[in-house]
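Lab notebook, bench 4. We co-purified these components, and the gel suggests they stay together. Before we commit to crystallization screens, I want a quick structural picture of the whole thing.
Request: model the full complex, all chains together.
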Amino acid sequence: MDEGKLYLGIDYGGNTVKLGLVDAFGNLSGRDSLPTSNLLDKVDCRAFAAAVGEFVHGMGIYSSELGGVGLAIPGIVNRGTYLTPNVKADWPLVMKSLEQSLSKTSISVLNDANAAALGELWMGAGENARSVLLVTLGSGLGSGLIVEGQVISGGNGAAGEVGHMTVVPGGRPCKCGRAGCVERYASARGIVQNFIEAGESGDYDPAQFSNHEPVNDTDALAVFDAARSGDPRGKRALAVMADKLGFALAQVACVVDPDVILLGGGIAAGADLYLDALKAAYRSYCFEACSSTEIRCATLLGDAGVYGAARYAMLAAPRDKSQRDWLDPDFGL
Ligand SMILES: [Zn+2]
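Here is the predicted assembly.
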């Protein structure tokens, strides 16, 4: 990397595209966001690249001052192929357009969850660690994995997909087509389902129920409120969540033994209600040598992806551009 240059991090989300310029010391000197749009043809891609270029130039930065661009995308990145079911984009065309808009600055692409994990490892709650697992608890359960400083994507681009680890064989059906995935128990949607099943279990006197009821199938915040008010359904919902997630994390630890496990996403906001139970569950299931692994909340929140994408570009920068312009996560850092 060139310590005198700035690196552009682009975190391409389902609703918003976040942009930020980051230097080699982790100073975020500018940030902006654009609405997500379809990027399927040259017109779309050129307009997007022009907007990114305007952001950079509007910060008073010439393209020549950029050391590289990191592009985090919501899906599988695997050896030059990109699968982003929730975003309609022709990624090679997007990259070509960005490269043209930014004076042939090299573009490095990685999965957004891995970007967030790399950002946390660099400037967030994973500082001083070499191996980090970031679990993002939202409507689903995403995860990013950095091992010994390397972004891990695996043979099929699916490494670290903790959300689809089976924790209940034959359990709740999952959108992935299988059943019993931890996402079905520990995401916002899973927590709400835990709450509903607790209410229907017959284990509790309805007189103990609070008036906090989820207004939709991802309203985990209502479950948090219920738990805080002593509602046994809320307490059970979070106990189930902690048990299933702790079980899954313990299995991950057996394989990659991360230095630290971080929790991000909207559901991490309720960690005060379940973190102790999660740690206890993890320790009850894990291999003894991994029992001291810390589990704590991420700190960069919405900026983690931008930091991580920029860092990825930074780490890729020393590579010979003539060998490969668009780096895959499985390309060694
Ligand atoms: Zn699944």
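The first strand starts at residue 6 and ends at 12. Worth comparing against the SEC data before the next meeting. Residues 164, 174, 176, 178, 181, 183 surround zinc ion (CB under 6 Å).
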